[in-house]
Every structure is written in C-alpha cells, then in structure tokens.
Write a structure and sequence with these properties.
CATH topology: pyruvate-formate lyase- activating enzyme
Number of domains: 1
Bound molecules: iron/sulfur cluster
Order of helices and strands: EHEHEEEEEEHEHHEHEHEHEHEEHEEHE
CATH architecture: Alpha-Beta Horseshoe
Mean pLDDT: 95
Distance between the termini: 36 Å
Pfam family, one: SPL
Largest sheet: 8 strands, mixed
Organism: Turneriella parva (strain ATCC BAA-1111 / DSM 21527 / NCTC 11395 / H)
Number of helices: 11
Helix content: 25-40%
Protein name: Radical SAM domain protein
Number of strands: 18
Low-confidence stretches: none
InterPro entries: rSAM, rSAM_sf, SPL
GO molecular function: 4 iron, 4 sulfur cluster binding; DNA photolyase activity; S-adenosyl-L-methionine binding
Length: about 325
Amino acid sequence: MQIDTLYLEKGARDYAAAARIVEKLNPQKIEEIEDYQTIFSKRRTPYLSKRDTRNVFVAVKRGALVKEAPAAYGYGSDDLHYYYIHAYNCVYECEYCYLQGYFSSPDLVLFVNHDEIIRDMRAIAAASAAQRVWFHAGEFSDSLALSHITAELADYWQFFSETPNAYLELRTKSINLTAMRQLKPINNAVVSFSLSTHTQAARHDRDAPTASQRLAAMQRLKELGFRLGVHFDPLIYAPDFGSNFEAIVCDLSERVGFAGIDYISLGVVRFAKDVYREAKENYPASDIFARNFIQGTDHKMRYVRPLRLQMLELGREILKKHGCPEDKIYFCME
Ligand code: SF4
C-alpha cells in the first residue's frame, strides 16, 4: 500500500493504537490535524485513485460507535445484532463494494478509541444480559486485513472473554492471520469469511485473496481452534452459477468441513442506488451488470425477486446436498 500522507488527529495522539499504527506504517509524511472529517469528507477523491496511492487518517471515532444492525443481518433471529466501526475503507477492490460511492474518498481511516467502543458494547451487553448480543466488525472495512498494524484485537478479546452473552463476528476476506495467531480461541468469537465461486472471486474481487487462499486460511484457523462462519455474499448470476457454486461448496466441505462452521449466509448481489451508479462507472465492462437490476421498495438495486429466490434456494440445496445442516444456513438481507 502506497501511502501519500498520514494525517494524525491531535485528539488521537495519546491513544496507544495511534502510536502503534504510526510506527508500523512509518510514512514519509505525517501531518497533524484537528478533525479528519475536514479533509476526508470534504475533498472529493475518485474511488479508483486508491490503486496508486492513498492517505491514511488516524482518528477518534465520534458519534455512535456501536450501531444496531439492519434486519436479517446476522445468524440467530432471536439474538440482538449490532455492528461497530473500527475503520473506514479497505485495501481490497471488489467491483461490487458498497464503499464506492458511500464515502467521498477511498482513503483509509483507522479509528483508535477502541476503549470507548468496548465501553459501549459492555453497556449494551449488560442491558440485555439474558440475551445473546452480537457485535459484528467489518461493515466499513475488512476486519483482519490490517489487524497486524492496528493491533486492537487483543483488547476486544479481553472484553468478549469476560462477557459470555456478547458475541463477536469478524467479517473478512483476508488471509492475514498474524493478529489471530496471538489470540486464544474463545466460544463467543467467530471469524467469518466472505466466499464466492472461484470464477467470481477471480473476476470481481480485485486484489483480494483467491477463494482457494481464503479456504486455506479457514483451514488454518480451524486447526488453531477458532470458530468460523461463511458468507456466500454477494452471489452474482451467471449461466453456470449452479455448477460453479457446487465446486466451491465441495472445496469448503473437503477442506474445512461443515462441523467446523457455525453458520453460512447466502445473499444475492444488491446495491444502494448511488453505489450502483458509481460501480457501473468504475467497472463498465464487468459482467456483474449483465443482468437487469430493479429498484426495490427499500431503494436498493437488486435482481427481480424470482431470480433472487431461485439462486438462494439453489445455493441452499447444494449446501444441504454436501452435508451442511439446514439450520446453519440463513438468507442475508432478504
Ligand atoms: S473486502 Fe469487502 S470492504 Fe473490502 S473491497 Fe471487498 S467488498 Fe469492499
């Protein structure tokens, strides 16, 4: 990753995480600023400029640190689901990524006030002590890709190991297990990998590990004793979708096995309207756009419902055929 300038918020300077990040990234240029938003949110930077160089902001997250997740976001419909924001933007470049068009810049923002995020999690978990409360990471940035630099996972681990009704989900496509290797598996933390067919990952998940590499990382984590999840999301239509999906499910079953996986979600490709427009502009030749999308009542752009349901049902049948228990499968955001 080529860094142009590391912008360090004055308010972030005293956090241990800030010192770690600055030391590990060791950028040529560091500039102290008052508020990252005056640059990150105000300057419009083309999304694809991230291929050449980008700025990194080390900042304090203000406002809501832990937010309620939308309906059908996570496994366990009787559980409560929240997500927390540890960073904005991502080192990978998936063509369907919702981050394009979401922020006005692809620059990375790394937040350092993890103690405050954990404080809010603690309060939420205590208020619902009789319930399972999930906290999902990876909504606005991959949760493992930079974890060896940001090094916050140990703090979260401490909190989750002391709070049995709180569950952590780290969503990722990364095979960077450096930080995970420093941790001991706990029952209430799951590393969930986004997977797609081999063909789809090779075509659309630019700069991200291949589907095979992700399976290898899952195998390694399983050997180390960590709990795992899988998100087959987004599923993208292709005439050979069924056979391609069956191939990755076979690999998953042989290399990881469903006994080692707590849950598997299936979700069909969808876009917020702005993101749809931006993705089409950024990747005009992508075959993601070969099928028609229509705008739903929630304003999201999706395939027509019969096609979505056909893909989801086919996915579920293939998973079951290869030995995945049905109660581990759920449909995401449908
Ligand atoms: S890994 Fe996720 S956050 Fe990163 S570019 Fe791909 S879709 Fe976006």
